[in-house]
Each structure stands twice: as C-alpha cells, then as structure tokens.
Amino acid sequence: MYDLYNWPTSNGKKINIMVEELGVEYTIHPIAIGKDDQFTPEYVKINPNSKIPAIIDQDGPGGKPYTLFESGAILMYMGEKHGQFYPQDLAKRYETIQWLMFQMGGIGPIFGQAHHFRRAAPEKVPYGIERYTKEARRLWGVLDGRLAEHEWVAAGEYTIADIAIFPWTQRYEWEGIALEEFPNVKRWYEVVGARPGVKRGLALQQS
Known about the structure:
Layout: E1 2-6, H1 10-22, E2 26-30, H2 41-46, E3 54-57, E4 66-69, H3 71-82, H4 90-120, H5 126-149, H6 160-169, H7 183-193, H8 196-203
Parallel strand pairs: 1-2
Antiparallel strand pairs: 1-3, 3-4
C-alpha cells in the first residue's frame, strides 16, 4: 500500500500514472499547492523540500514504512521494487536512467520556465520568453530525433523514462509548440496516451 501525497501537475501525474500502470494499491492525499498545503508542518516532515510528489510505502524495506520524495527517485524505487518499466540489464537500465535525467534536468526545468514566462509572469519579460521558448523547442527536437530511431525513449521498451516525459509533453501549446512540428514525438505521444494505465492515471485528481 502506498500513500501518495500529490497534486496533478506534470510531476505529480508521473506518479499517478506509475501506480496505475503497476496496478498497486494506493491512497491519494491531495496536496493543494495553490493553497500552500506543501508548506504545512505535517507535509514538511514528509518532504522537507515542500514539493510534490512524495510517497510513503507502508511495506518498505524490511517491511517498515518508507518515505521518499522527488518524482524521479519515486519512479526508480517503484520500478525496481515491482520489477516493471525499469530494465534489469545494466546497459538498458542506465539508458533508462539517462533519459529520466534528461527529463529531470532538462525538460522539467526548461518547460517549467517557458510556462512561467509565457503564461504566469506578472509582466512580460521578452528575454525570458525568448530564452526558454528557444530552449524548450531545442529539447523537443532532441526528443524527436531520439524517437525517429526508437519506438520508445529508452531501452527498446516502455519504461519510467516514457512515464516521466509524457506528462510534460501534454502542455505543448504552453511552449508555443504544435505536435505536427515533431512527427516522431506525435507518434509516441499518441501511443503512450492510449495506454489504459496512462488514461487511468491522468484521470486521477482532476482539478
């Protein structure tokens, strides 16, 4: 049984998709970030960085509750524990980790900044808009190039790398992107989005 402390942002959706793909038992505890739930003393004890998502695995190592935060770490933990979407072969595993880190260190921060400067900033900052829109487009190109030669992002199979990247590609309009500009990503996007576990995960915590 997992306790998920989550909200349906791009990072939060990763974990909702993962638990549905795995078919594990879970309970969601909504952390309404717009209401600053992430800063309550109770939640800070779970995640001192005051971000979502976080989990408590009630059947963690040694049969004891185990708390974990950071979406990439959670995906790796669940993938390893349940032996799914996280290859056992060393080369394939690190290929998967490599592309997971591409999302964590590239797509997530850059797309997030593009969203901020294009949509949320209290004043228009042309430099910020240009910088992050340009870099977001470059990252779309990297992903499209990868998917031109591979069915899935990593390891020749559906992995946590696909799960991590997919929710961030759902906001393509926010980055000034049309899916048709990146046909290989579009093909992958439609295949991943059609998976029953992905559909169920996206349906959780509709806000």
